[in-house]
Every structure is written in C-alpha cells, then in structure tokens.
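sorry for the late reply, my laptop died twice this morning and i had to redo everyting from scratch. anyway the thing you sent over, i finally got around to it. pasting the sequence first so we're on the same page, its 183 residues, then the predicted structure underneath. double check i copied it right bc i was rushing
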Amino acid sequence: MFFYSKQFVAAVGLYVCCALPVCAEQRSSAAKGVNSLAAPVPTPLLNGKRAFISYELGDVTSFPSAYSGGPERAYSEFFSQMKAWGRFELVMNPSDADLVFAVRFVDAPTPQIRVGISDGKTHVALWGFVEQVDPKMFKKSRDASFTASVQLLVGDVQALVTTGAAPQAALKAGKTRMSDQAE
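ok and here's the structure:
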C-alpha cells in the first residue's frame, strides 16, 4: 500500500486533468486576441476613470497546498498590477467607481482566474475575461503560471480599453497563453 502527500496528489490530479479531452476544449477568453470579432466595447469601459476591484471567493482548497498564498492571491496580484498600470484610479469604495472588476480563482475542472467587469453605477455586466493557469507538476512552476495568468488578464483589459494597444503586461512578461500553445 502506498501513501502520497496531499501536494503530490494535487499535482498529479492537476497534471492528469490537462490530459482529459474536456479540459482541452476550454480556452482562455483572449486566446485568439482580445475582442477579435471587433464587438462594440461598452462606453463605460472606454471612458471609465475610477475602478473598484472586488474579491470574489472562489476555490479555497488549492491554498496553500497547490499554490502559495491564500485564496485572495488572484485579487491581490490583479490589484497590484492594475495599480502599477495606472490607467484607472483605484478606489476603495464601490459607490465611487465607474467600473467594478470582480476577481475570482476557480480550480475545476481546469484552474482559471476570472475577471468580470461591471458598470459601477448600474451594476450591469459589461465584459469578462478568463485565463487558464497552467497546472504544472511542481508548486514553484504553478505559482509562476498563476502570476503569469494574472499578467495576461491585465493585458486583456489593456488591449480592450486602449485602442490599438498590445497588452503591455503580457508583452513585458514574455508570456504566451496555455491555449495558444495547444494549436
């Protein structure tokens, strides 16, 4: 009889999931380019100046066994990178915001970080993005992939709201999406 650590079982489970056909069908929201069909971008997204970033509780069982930190890690990293970008004044009260970014990490069936964007006044959903976290075998590699996915999300937002701009966060990081590599 063999006994395995929780970390080993989590890593193998993540690795095996990637081989399943159902997981292969899931794509990042920007795998073919942000807004590749040139859908009209809602005016509040283009004109918004002040943003509130909210933390939506997602899957908590992956922390700290599969990923370093706690369940708020995606929120914290997204907040930090949005602040560094400087496009929006980040406010701490949602009623002061033009836009609300809701950040959430989900771990099944494929690890993903999701960002929903809504109008701060009407609360109408305006846009959303999802980036897969490459479920590498080792925790250090999964952590790097987690951070890279957050960078891609900030790049997705940049590409959407900045006319003709390439996603700077993704370019600086030199990252490619997991789904880009699958083709």
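Residues 34 and 71 are 27 Å apart (CA to CA).
thats about all i looked at so far, will dig more tmrw
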